[in-house]
Amino acid sequence: MVLQTIPARIRWAVDIMDLQPNDHVLEIGCGPGAGAELICSRVTAGKVFAIDRSESGVDRTKRRCAQYVESGRLTVRQIDLATLRVPVKRLTKVYAFNVNLFWVRDCADEVALLHERLLPGGSVYLFFEATRPEQVPMIVEKASGSLTQGGFRVSVVQRRNPAVVGIIGKRIG
């Protein structure tokens, strides 16, 4: 199977997730579908659920990942995280790239929903590409704080070129 072009920053982020064939993954903000495509290529026995508030993002992901949608391995919905009802009983991983919700406003309700739906030991992977390097400490502080307050143990990873920061929250309890 030949994958469409997937940016190096997305490949790096998905590699960090250490996806397993039977994972159940939620992608928040699927946009053009590059992340969903790469995740689906690795999650061969589990399920992937991708959401986006944008109708065009959902349409692009459905087109790009049509084979996964048709096989039932990928479900794509236009919805925001606050009103999400996850169709799988429990998630093992949550992925988001450049979803500013986690650092621009209070997201306690959304983080609580993720904590409730993740299996113990499951993880949230939040990645941000910093357009201005001076933003990185603030993004890390706010997103890490949101996850920590929501019951996650947080670690941070960075990639220098392009400047991408990953905040990883492992569910405690």
UniProtKB/TrEMBL annotation:
A Pfam family annotated for this UniProt entry: Methyltransf_25
Gene3D superfamilies: Vaccinia Virus protein VP39
Domain of life of the organism encoding this protein: Bacteria
SUPFAM superfamilies per the UniProt record, alphabetical: S-adenosyl-L-methionine-dependent methyltransferases
Domain annotation Methyltransferase: ranges: 25-122
Name of protein: Methyltransferase domain-containing protein
Signal sequence, renumbered to the chain: none
